[in-house]
Amino acid sequence: MRTSTSGRVGQYAALLAYLVFLAFPFLWLVSTAFKSPRELGSLHPTWIPRDPTLDNFRQAFDEQPLLRAAGNSLLAALAAAVIAVLIATPLAYVMARHRTRLAKAATGWVVVSQAFPLVLVIIPLFLALKNLRLINSLVGLVMVYVVWALPFALWMLVGYVRAVPTELEEAAAVDGAGRLRTLVSVTAPLLAPGIVATALFAFITAWNEFFFALVLLKTADKQTLPVVLTHFIGAEGVADLGPLAAAAFLATLPSLVIFAIIQRRITGGMLTGAVKS
Predict the structure, then answer these.
(1) How many C-beta atoms surround the C-beta of residue 94 within 10 A?
(2) Single pTM value for the model
């Protein structure tokens, strides 16, 4: 009994330490965003600003086109998430239900492709988009985001599809439902948590992505928010810390808000109510 209790205490202590480790950068970012320039230059920094100010936010919007960049990021991220889910869902169903050698090879390739570094694929992607005249285009950037998110989206959805009992589909077939009707009316609703989780992954990946946007977007009116944030760093590498922290704080809010809204659907039981007891 003592061993069990001490082990559980150790687990909670480790979890608390991990949460503190994850929360520290964000809390420090929020604190920095509300500090005055004088306090930012202090040799004895504090967690809570002594004289909170919104000047950093005003300066950030005055110096850089944050709203336009946020709009570009939102458009690219939403489009990439929707397209990736629309492509990955039927493919994942086929890969999960038809376990042939080809499907197994495709699943293995999906996992291996995630190990490719960005610098290995950026040149072929750049040349391909150049031939298609999609350099400095949000359409080209969305295509890249879809291709980059698709392997992991497939890998996620395959696991969700395999968790759906085939007996449900067989029962629908016995009742006279065709393959398409079964997929739409039976399987798709049960995959909703997985689809939402996959879309969230694709959205956050595209929203935070920096390298592809930096290489493929040339003009200021097309740049996304992560690229614009680098403009707060001067030519000599000196950061305008206050406005940078304020802009970075605003850039993290959409992901946090979206996750807070749909977290119950992600963590909810995928098959709750599907089978009568």
Answers:
(1) 14
(2) 0.81
